[in-house]
Amino acid sequence: MEPSSVFETRELREELRTRRRHEIGETKSGVEVGARDETDARALCDELGRLPIVGSVSARKLSWFDRWQVREHLAGNYIGPPDPTQPFW
User: Per residue in 49-73, pLDDT tens?
Assistant: First the structure.
């Protein structure tokens, strides 16, 4: 989902928090929000697409690996790509 302008990004994030929706990722121009299933995703797209602070909304199905990464992130495992400045043990 993309805000209608760069100045609306903070308001969009606050709106997601009030709706108890989790950001599962960030893109160059917006944020990715999780949904329980396809029906929930479609309803969320319709609901958020009507807000004036939202520029565009789209939905996509996550792959198995993407779902695994989201679960790990939400569980508190924030491991990222390897840091080349640290030794590999």
Answer: 999 999 999 998 989 998 888 888 7
Q: How far apart are CA 55 and CA 75, in angstroms?
A: 30
Strand partners, 2: 56
Give the three-class secondary structure for 35: coil
Q: Nearest CA to 5 among 54, 59, 48?
A: 54
Instruction: Give a yes or no: residue 72 inside a domain.
Output: no
DSSP class of residue 29 equals S
| Domain count within the chain | 1
* 87 vs 83: CA distance, rounded Å: 8
Domain that holds residue 10: 2-66
